Amino acid sequence: MYDVAIIGAGVIGGMIARELSFYNLKICILEKENDVAMGATKANSAIVHAGFDAKEGTLKARLNVKGSKMMPEIAKALGVKYINNGSLVVGFNEEDEKTLQGLLERGNSNGVEGLKVLKREEILEIEPNIGKNVTCALFAPTGAIICPYDLAVSAIGNAMDNGTELKCNFGVESIERKNEYYVIKSEKEEICARYVVNAAGLYSDGIAKLAGDDSFNVHPRRGEYVLLDKECGDIISHTIFVTPSKMGKGILVSPTVDGNLLLGPTAVDGEDKSDKSTTSEFFASIFGIAERSVFGIPKNKTITSFCGLRSVGSTGDFIINTPKEGFVNVAGIESPGLSASPAIAEYVRDILKESGLRLEKNENAVMTRKSMHVFREASVEEKNRMIKESPSYGRIVCRCEGVTEGEILDAIRRNPKATDLDGVKRRTRSQMGRCQGGFCSPYIIELLSRELNLPYEQITKFGGESYVATGKTKEIKK
Asked: Which of 16, 261, 388, 397 counts the most CB atoms within 10 A of its CB?
């Protein structure tokens, strides 16, 4: 019997699990995929928003501003890269400037600090490559960037270090209330828990319905992105937004914490919760809009494109409530969900406490976690020491990103353990460089095969039947 079962191992479920792991509770995270951070968490803008966009008085506004303030300390504790680079929302005419003034007033009401509307001359002083037709901008100095899947993996790893269990490939098929607890079943297994937290992202409405709550719906909003090579990362230093519309914050141009340049996302509402395809049509539109905001973006430096699905709830706000005894919805967590995640975790903790969950501090709990990128960030002397202790750190596997065998072995052995190619990618950045895994993938598969004691052909890209190899080329018959 678990005290709390959390359905969904994205950044929201992960941050909730971490927060609850500081108490004497038996906690389980249930994830339908083969690894954590497989939904919106792995494909979003990676922005810690300042909090000026959300409507005053909403959960989005309150939790965004609080979460943004909490994020630096949490990122440091979890060893996650966080850069307070600030953001600019650019405008191109007088009408845009009026909109920016409205955002300034809203941001002030929400408690965002340091907001200011700049004229073109002021913008050029801090961003020389700003678009030629940009006339004004809202400057938010508290805006920042982070790695969302790094945050989720580290939060869940921290929770697991404190005793939380993780069950992947657990697709919830039924939820039944029995006496004082819930029985949650998958195709092959069932668990019991006194409290359930529904943090299932795009599928949170379906999970709620299994528990008897049909008060909301969630639909996907497709967002396509383009990622440019690291040599483009210094074209700008701030995150550049355009004046927002009802569909979102528009196409942004932003450096990443790892030095690349990110463009996107598009915003197309749909019904298919599994469609993550990319299109040439939107690829072109992303560049067209981005080039208005920032001058000199080189299209030929694109290394990959991808699509993320945002979880858009039917209420217009975050859906965090208790429709049934012992059951908490944490749904419709679209942007600024990543920014709000630390505050959401505390908010859910307090809801559970008010619902009767007994919270006693776990005196043995750890609140910190070693960075997954310790070797890369170490000094030459420290690297030499680590190589002497473990020669695997002296063997480069991913040449593009400079990732060593030792780091890949750490990813496979350390909670939450990577069991497929994409899992290793999210933890180490191997396969994320110019060749996109063209050179390093075969050797990473070999390491996974050896460490997991599985045949080479059984290693997958992202679980399920996503097998990478069918056999040795010289053994395959025509």
From this structure: 16
Cβ(253)–Cβ(262) under 8 Å? yes
**Cα(478)–Cα(461) distance, integer angstroms:** 25
Q: Who's near 31: CB < 8 A, 6+ residues apart? A: 8, 9, 13, 38, 166, 167, 168, 169, 170
Which one of the listed residues 49, 219, 238, 373 is annotated catalytic? 49
Q: Which two tokens stand for residue 308?
A: 């993320």
* Bridge partners, residue 83, by sequence: 145
Q: 374-471 domain in CATH 3.40.50.720?
A: no
**CATH topology match: 87-141+221-309 vs 374-471:** no
CB count in 10 Å sphere of residue 464: 11
Report domain extents, the chain.
Answer: 1-82+145-217+314-370, 87-141+221-309, 374-471
- The enclosing H or E element of 319 equals strand 319-324
Rounded to whole angstroms, the Cα distance separating 356 from 107 reads 35
In angstroms, rounded to a whole number, what is the distance separating the alpha carbons of residues 118 and 310? Answer: 31
Q: Please state whether the predicted TM-score (pTM) of the whole model is above 0.90.
A: yes
Rounded-to-integer distance, Cα 99 and Cα 419, Å: 47
In tens digits, the chain (478 residues) has pLDDT values of 999 999 999 999 999 999 999 999 999 999 999 999 999 999 999 999 999 999 999 999 999 999 999 999 999 999 999 999 999 999 999 999 999 999 999 999 999 999 999 999 999 999 999 999 999 999 999 999 999 999 999 999 999 999 999 999 999 999 999 989 999 999 999 999 999 999 999 999 999 999 999 999 999 999 999 999 999 999 999 999 998 866 556 899 999 999 999 999 999 999 999 999 888 888 888 999 999 999 999 999 999 999 999 999 999 999 999 999 999 999 999 999 999 999 999 999 999 999 999 999 999 999 999 999 989 889 999 999 999 999 999 999 999 999 999 999 999 999 999 999 999 999 999 999 989 999 999 999 999 999 999 999 999 999 999 999 887 776 655 5
Verify whether residue 49 is a known catalytic residue.
yes
Total count of residues recorded for the chain: 478
Instruction: Tell me which CATH homologous superfamily contains domain 87-141+221-309.
Output: D-Amino Acid Oxidase, subunit A, domain 2 (3.30.9.10)
